[in-house]
Amino acid sequence: MHTFCSEDCWVSLEAVTAAVLRSPVDAIAVMDHNEIEGALRLAEEAPFPVIVGEEVASEHGEIAGLFLKEWIPPGLSIQETMARIKGQGGLVYVPHPIARDVPSAAGLRNLETILDQVDILEGFNARILWSADNIVAQEIARQYSIPVAAGTALALQAHSVS
Questions:
Q1: What is the 8-class DSSP label of residue 76?
Q2: Which residues touch 52 (CB under 8 Å, ≥6 apart)?
Q3: Strand, helix or coil for residue 78
Q4: Which fold has domain 13-157?
Q5: What whole-number distance in Å separates Cα of residue 109 and Cα of residue 154?
Q6: Per-residue pLDDT reduced to its tens digit, 12-62
Q7: Is 39 helix (H, G, I), strand (E, B) or coil?
Q8: Is this prediction's pTM over 0.90?
Q9: What is the DSSP-derived secondary structure letter of residue 6?
């Protein structure tokens, strides 16, 4: 999920914590856009496990890293972004890999060149407009035996959960 440290989210760390505590979720991954400070802070403060991640705007689409220790700058090639993730002992996670309505998606052509290095593929994203894009991502993951993850809207619900 994202926090206020991402340009597309305004949810505070306190609101994320409150939402998680009211949910059946035991742990979260925070992958803000081009930033890890929110994830690092939440990992120190939260009473539940927080996986530190970053959704990095690579030269040819977004690539995320999980279990990161250091910030990865945007604008690198996909290969260099993935090398920096792996260099930290992290996992390479591809968010919304072929979402037609997300300009920052890696896209099928780029995805095909990196599938052998992908640890996790997002097969469901709650914000994707074309459900077929989620289905295609799931099928690609099955074909290549890549674990599938889901992007949630939990943080977006932080203020509306009662």
A1: S
A2: 30, 36, 39, 40, 43, 66, 67, 68, 69
A3: helix
A4: TIM Barrel (3.20.20)
A5: 31
A6: 899 999 999 999 989 999 999 999 999 999 999 999 999 999 999 999 999
A7: helix
A8: no
A9: S
